[in-house]
Predict the 3D structure of the following.
Amino acid sequence: MDAPWVEKYRPNRLDQLRRGTSVDIIRAWARKWEGGVPEKRGLLIYGPPGTGKTSAAIALANEMGWDYIEFNASDIRSRSSINDTALRGSLYSTISEFSGRKKLIVLDEVDSLYERNIDGGDMGGKSAISNLLDKTMNPVILIANNIYDLKSGTTGKSIAEKCEQVEFQRYRSIQILNILKEICKNENIFCSHEKLSQIAENSNGDMRAAINDLQGYGDFTAPQERDITQNIYNIISSIIYRKDTFINLRNDIINLGEDPNNFILYLLENIYSFNSNVEDYVKALETIARADLFLGRVGRRMNYSLWGYATDLMASTVFFNLKGEKYLKFGFPSLIKKMSQLKKFRAVREDFAYRTGRYTHKSTAFMNKETLSFIYQIMNRNKEIRDNLERILGLDFDEISSLYL
Amino acid sequence: MKVDAKTIREFSNIIITLVPEARVDFKPEGLFSKVMDPAHVAMIALEINKEAFQEYVLDGEENLGMDIDKMRNVLKLSGPNDIIDIKFDGKKISFKLGNLNVSTPLIDPSSLTTPKIPTIELPNKIVTDISYLSTGIKAAEGIAEVVTFNIRAEELKIYSKGETDSETTELTIPKSMAKEFIYTSDARSSFALDYLSKFIRSLESSQEISISVGNDFPLRMEANILNGKGRVTFLLAPRIESI
């Protein structure tokens, strides 16, 4: 296969990034490094994915004749790993052959460093980075998606203060469109203007996603639609009409990119068919129920490897004869539909549970789950208590009774 | 191919001072490997002639991505004089040790970066017994993280300083103790002690070492290994002095 286009067309010079004045800030910071160690030793580039942050770092290293070393969050999780690699590297000049003899140290995804759960250390990743910024003799660039995550906590704030800061905003779709056109021209491929604009629009300012999408389409005469509900529909109809094998369906569900918790709702909604074999229908429901058990465990234990079992079980409903005689319309999950219809009522219940909870020193969740129906019954039978409650809680009984339609 | 466990152990000990995985090129004249540590501070270029092997049969040229860490686990099972029979196909490398056969997967060599060894002209060079150098490095290990090489007309000084001024180590190698002493100008550079001590320790079969020093410039050390059947070059970047 071809090299990924995002790598192939990665800009070599800062100007090619089309980043306007932000580039000037980056260059000014780099020039200070040429004359010694500047006051702010770090440069913080932040912005959403696919806006050219890493490319800017690479292009800068190119322009300055600096060596380039990149560490991402998985390399630099703990203090000791930062000290062993990035910090040590920052104190010594580069051994590779570079005219500048300096190395640009790039720490990617610094906003995803967590301070907790660092084994046996009194100082976590963020403080190690802060220490690095105090001591480094080489230029350091920090890259973050979310500056607020980085700045959370005092160490994060001090990191930000030690850096010049540059924000990269999302590309406008016209900018993306122009790049896509250039790539098409270079690769000698044809793609309609409509298709290209569509890719550009869909990317939501993420250049990398747009270029990947362009490369992914491959067949330019009949581009595929990226439509999740459409795919869910296809998979589920393949399950019901047994159009595909278990293995294929299982892979389809995995590749769907949809949360299995949503998929199971679609599946449950649509296997419902009259005239089908009742035994098979019961078995299918049991299988889905078991899949749901796994999904529940994922929720409780945060062990996402269990998703695999849920997916297997959901795909295995293809073994049951669920095909009805009548064609049934593909339905949106009624649970989600009903939840949204009941939003208003749930709000009233929450409010009621909150007020009674405050009065009885219990949590809102407890009142909501355990006591609401009893209170309702009591209020319904005893007018005196009802009047008292309405007065104390400032509630209207009619409002409450609306909960039990 | 067949080789002493001792030979292959020395090879892996040297490489592992910088990286756990390395690209190793098997060429008709022998085995070559170049590695650089992840912080781009040190480089090692290593070659072992085919004479160091008991049997060296090769079909053309092979570039292998080897997991040195895993290989060392296999070597732990062998005695120093055991002969290891090494075979590789595209996907795995197998070590045969008597009746024991162990295979480990190979790494795609294109995923491992091979550094280009820079050509560095250094004005001063001294060849000396490795044990002198090693004493000086070991003395510094307890107290400092940085060690300084200072060469003058008559001597090479290797010194370090602890947290207080009274805690120091200093090793002097006078011209008379050196096998070869080429001096052009006074020079001084400081280096990370950790890299030096790991590297020196990995050289089990070397007697002499050549040390080239410049002023705030990379250090180059060269040594013959395996009784002259191999050669290792070590490059280390200097500490950047505050301006």
In short: Chain B has two domains: 2-111, 124-236.
